[in-house]
Amino acid sequence: MLAKRVDEIPSNPGTWVFEPKWDGFRTVIFRSHEELLIQSRDGKPLDRYFPELREALLHQLPQRCVVDGEIVIARDGGLDFEALTLRIHPAASRVKTLAAQLPASVVFFDLLQLGDRDLRDEPFTVRRAELERVLAKVHPPLHLTPATRDRAVAQDWFTRFEGAGLDGVIAKAVEGPYTPDKRTMLKIKHERDCDCVVAGFRWHKDGQGTAVGSLLLGLYDAAARLQHVGVCASFSAAKRKELVEFLGPYRKDALRNHPWAAWQSEDAQASGRMPGGQSRWSEGKDLSWEPLRIELVVEVAYEHMQGTRFRHLAHFRRWRSDKAPKDCTYEQLEVVPPQELMRIFSERT
């Protein structure tokens, strides 16, 4: 069951149930006695990457059930998505070590089946009541997400817990059934503006030399080093072609004194030591890039900063010809103070 984005928390009284939006790996967990399957949103098994969850799931979940939730890793009072991505590793020994160092948790927010009873066509309020009943005594590393019908409480969650890594708020229709692959939930996410240096670009996968796929973004750190913070993409077909002509003049002599010049070498590309280099998620995609002279500044919209990088794709707003690249620093970013993550579990309204 998916969600479509809206600009603000809906206000229709009695129509919606609100939940925090967790930033982790979406999962559906199937349990039949001693059989257990932890499945990703795209249907891939996740069991081998989170071995520390098996015992708790078998001990605390009903004997036969299907539950929907999010796998997260929490530390220092917030969620750590980067630590979560490190788990997708081919070596079982590495996964075991990471599981011991930073164990994962599961936050549950829906119940699809209980015993022989298929709950997907039941109203959400029925599914939620059953979920609360069967998980009434659940304890870490398993959690029941808080839920409220009070818009003011949801707005408080949206504002206060962003610093802990929560991604926003989800709104579910009180009477809504569980609708797989349909965007019948609503999601309200954070969005901010940032001025970034455009230090390079990648060709579109279907337009090598004729269409730009994404812009490589940078910000200067406290030591005046240009750090790669993410990419700006999602351009229309016409805009991709327009960008080829626009960026053309900035490609000339671009590697001369370029702060990322070393990342153009074949060794750097092979090892991933380059902006957005190969990872367990890129699955061998062509991530070669074209450098640009450090002269362009773009204003982008972003949702969340994870460490020193944008958590998701940034979105193009406008070119900033009135701003110097040297002024694009981390200092411009709004920093939200972290809140103690576990506080939210005591606020079950």
**Number of DSSP strand runs:** 19
Order of helices and strands: EEEEHEEEHHEEHEHEEEEEHHEEEE
**Class of secondary structure makeup:** alpha+beta
Helical stretch tally: 7
β-sheet strand percentage: 25-35%
How many angstroms separate the termini?
23 Å
Question: What low-confidence regions span 5 or more consecutive residues with pLDDT below 50?
Answer: 269-273, 278-284
CATH architecture of the largest domain: 2-Layer Sandwich
Explained architecture:
The chain has 349 residues and is of the alpha+beta class. The chain has helices spanning 54-60, 81-85, 92-101, 124-134, 151-160, 237-251, 266-271, and strands spanning 2-5, 16-21, 25-32, 35-40, 64-72, 74-75, 78-79, 105-114, 117-118, 142-144, 168-173, 183-189, 192-203, 212-220, 226-233, 290-302, 305-306, 309-310, 314-319. The protein has 2 domains: 2-190, DNA ligase/mRNA capping enzyme (D-amino Acid Aminotransferase, Chain A, domain 1), CATH 3.30.470; 192-332, Beta Barrel (OB fold (Dihydrolipoamide Acetyltransferase, E2P)). It is built from 7 helices and 19 strands. The strands form 5 sheets. Strands 3, 4, 5, 8, 9 and 10 form a 6-stranded mixed β-sheet that branches. It has a 5-stranded mixed beta barrel with strand order 13-14-15-19-16. Strands 1-12-11-2 form a 4-stranded mixed β-sheet. A hairpin with a 2-residue loop joins β6 and β7. The protein is elongated, with a radius of gyration of 22 Å.
